[in-house]
Design brief:
The two termini are 35 Å apart. The chain folds into two domains: 60 residues, no CATH class; 290 residues, Metal-dependent hydrolases (TIM Barrel), CATH 3.20.20. α10 packs parallel to α11. The protein has 15 helices and 13 strands. β9, α9 and β10 form a beta-alpha-beta unit. The longest helix has 18 residues. By secondary structure, the protein is α/β, with parallel strands linked by helices. Helix content is 42%, strand content 11%.
């Protein structure tokens, strides 16, 4: 083989590199080199990854902008109630993945949102404190700079709603408990604004303006992943700090789905100096089957073309294994709990899954 042919063989296209980079986020960094600049990361697995992909993960602080420890809710409850039950073996898959930080926010709300959210942060703080040799709460930008060297899994605390804020002073209070990200709304309407599945979206209220201003002041990131279109755009207009879309996809590639973002909103991410995380949830990727890794990569491509790769991230919206690996009864309950009588709910109940079989995101 000529030198030129060898160079061509070892050269990845941008799309191939993205494929391997995404896949490599689920792989351990150190591994024996086999040949031609490729690594077999696990002794019992045939999958190989390019050195370029491995180096990319190795050199980066890898953040999953929305990811939970597990979608097995019974296991999660056990870990939180008895932190000692979370062992080194439970942590190892995260270490193998190359992911340095997760943002395990969930959708809380309802009549007792304040108390429920207090319990959520109390549980997480106790859990992290019990595993301070393994876990690290992310409180500042400086923590993001040092978490990789620490060898710990970083936990960025947030909630996928802001109903816990009864007034602006509550923003300060919850920040003191470790909250660093707050999604303005979940799928439904609250006092701040409208979720993506509401029939109408009047945008952000005067109360919502006060909440955003206080979040800006204390250093809590605004997230609009589940917000309606008008509420999303209003947040970018009102906030003086970057507004996150931690986990969503592109409306241009999945027309009619209310939970994905318009090009107008995506462009605001670029103008705002922020980041958008792309999910691997099948129904957000594509309306019809089959859904493949190519379809998911199209969303990465679309955002890159609109606003540049520097504004592009991964917000998987799953655990390391995806919805397909959930216990069937839990999967059924999750779908049943989704807001009924909306296009979003109909799509969710028809097929809740991920592209896990094609790629671990």
């Amino acid at each position: 083989m000529s030198e030129l042919e060898m160079q061509k063989k070892n050269t990845l296209t941008r799309r191939e590199m993205l494929k391997k980079s995404v896949a490599a986020s689920a792989a351990v960094i150190a591994a024996p080199m086999l040949n031609l600049g490729r690594f077999q990361l696990f002794a019992n697995a045939a999958t190989e990854y390019s050195t370029r992909a491995i180096d990319l993960v190795k050199q980066s602080t890898v953040i999953d902008m929305l990811s939970v420890l597990t979608l097995d809710f019974a296991k999660q409850d056990k870990w939180m109630a008895d932190p000692e039950s979370f062992t080194a073996a439970d942590l190892q898959p995260f270490k193998d993945s190359g992911i340095n930080v997760i943002h395990p926010a969930v959708g809380l709300g309802g009549a007792n949102a304040y108390e429920t959210t207090l319990k959520f942060f109390a549980s997480w703080n106790a859990f992290i404190a019990n595993h301070d040799e393994r876990l690290m709460r992310i409180d500042s930008a400086a923590d993001l700079d040092r978490v990789k060297k620490s060898g710990k899994l970083g936990i960025l605390l947030g909630v996928q709603n802001s109903e816990q804020f009864r007034n602006a002073d509550d923003v300060n209070y919850f920040r003191g408990l470790g909250q660093r990200v707050s999604q303005l709304t979940y799928n439904a309407r609250n006092l701040i604004g409208n979720g993506s599945t509401e029939r109408r979206d009047e945008g952000i209220s005067d109360f919502g303006v006060a909440i955003i201003e206080r979040m800006n002041k204390v250093g809590m990131a605004v997230d609009v992943s589940h917000c309606g279109d008008r509420t999303t755009l209003d947040a970018f207009e009102i906030s003086k700090k970057p507004v996150l879309i931690t986990h969503s996809n592109c409306r241009a590639l999945n027309p009619g789905h209310p939970r994905v973002k318009t090009d107008e909103a995506i462009k605001k991410v670029g103008e705002n100096g922020s980041v958008m995380g792309i999910t691997g949830v099948r129904m957000f990727v594509k309306a019809t089957e089959p859904t493949t890794i190519e379809d998911a990569l199209d969303h990465f491509d679309h955002v890159r073309k609109l606003i540049g790769a520097e504004h592009l991230g991964v917000g998987s919206d799953i655990d390391l294994y995806g919805y397909d690996a959930m216990p069937p009864e839990l999967n059924k309950k999750l779908r049943a709990a989704t807001k009924a009588a909306t296009a979003f709910a109909r799509k969710l109940t028809s097929k809740v899954s991920t592209i896990r079989n094609e790629c671990s995101i």
